[in-house]
Amino acid sequence: MLIAGFPAGAWGTNCYLVAPAAGEECVIIDPGHQAAQGVEDAVRKHRLKPVAVILTHGHIDHVASVVPVCGAHDVPAWIHPADRFMMSDPAKALGRSLGTQLMGELTVGEPSDVHELTDGATVALAGLELTVAHAPGHTKGSVTFGMPESTGGGSDVPPVLFSGDLLFAGSVGRTDLPGGDPAELLESLGRVCLPLDDSTVVLSGHGPQTTIGRERATNPYLREVATGYGSGRSAAPRRGM
Questions:
Q1: Confidence band (pLDDT; 50, 70, 90) for 58?
Q2: What is d(CA 43, CA 40) in angstroms, rounded to the nearest whole number?
Q3: Rounded CA gap, 116 and 139, in Å?
Q4: What CA–CA distance (Å, rounded) separates 222 from 239?
Q5: Phi/psi at 172 (nearest 5 deg)?
Q6: Closest CA relative to residue 29, chosen from 80, 97, 77, 91
Q7: Which residues contact 155 (CB under 8 A, 6 or more apart)?
């Protein structure tokens, strides 16, 4: 398994290229603000052939490079239908004040070929199988992508969760933007993350890699959900977008 990731743009949004191995087809997860060059560098370094862009949600720091990346490789983009409008109308997605500021700097839009993600679906791309879990709270159309544990090439690869802005190391996604909802976010944490094995590697939209076991032990939001307190929190931390 090859997972090549890098932080991009003003928000340090993690973009991931995932393939069975170097020299094979890959999927690109969340090519956001200023990510296009990093994608091309990773494609050349690992001799990859992109077949799709898949998006954990529609905020501009995760989708700003979708059009150039899809166009350069003639591939489709996949996004949950509740967030699809964000690709072409980030001002509405972020609120007019913040969105108008960003629109002066960025050219955005929807690629010509868009597929919609559905909860519980298994997306088979580039020889990979990614399970989609709808996880609203950060946005209405936030999703995670799960990959099961695999064995091959003489080594075991633990299960992986691409959590987008649902779960970070020690925190969770902000809920003060349009479409954010603290109670939904905590419900999604409990439904999507708590059942996972401690060994599951979490690759989030911002910040360092972690594991479910580490977050189960230290993340106050995951602990809160685990103890059944859940919906009492009025706001989630302002981290990333």
A1: very high
A2: 5
A3: 16
A4: 16
A5: -140, 175
A6: 77
A7: none
Return the ∠ at Cα 39 (arms to 93 and 55), rounded to 5°: 35
Q: CA–CA distance from 206 to each of 12, 115, 177 (Å)?
A: 6, 25, 17
Beta-strand relationship, 143-147 and 128-134: antiparallel
**CA distances, 96 to each of 68, 93, 102, 136, 155 (Å):** 25, 8, 10, 21, 49
**What's the chain's length in residues?**
241
Could you give the strand order of the β-sheet that contains 160-164, starting from the edge strand earlier in sequence? Answer: 122-125, 128-134, 143-147, 160-164, 201-204, 210-211
CB 55 within 8 A of CB 79: yes
- pTM comes to 0.91
Q: What is the pLDDT of residue 103?
A: 47
Torsion, Cα 85 202 175 16, to 10 degrees, reads -30
Structure confidence by residue, pLDDT tens digits, 97-121? 554 445 455 667 899 999 999 999 9
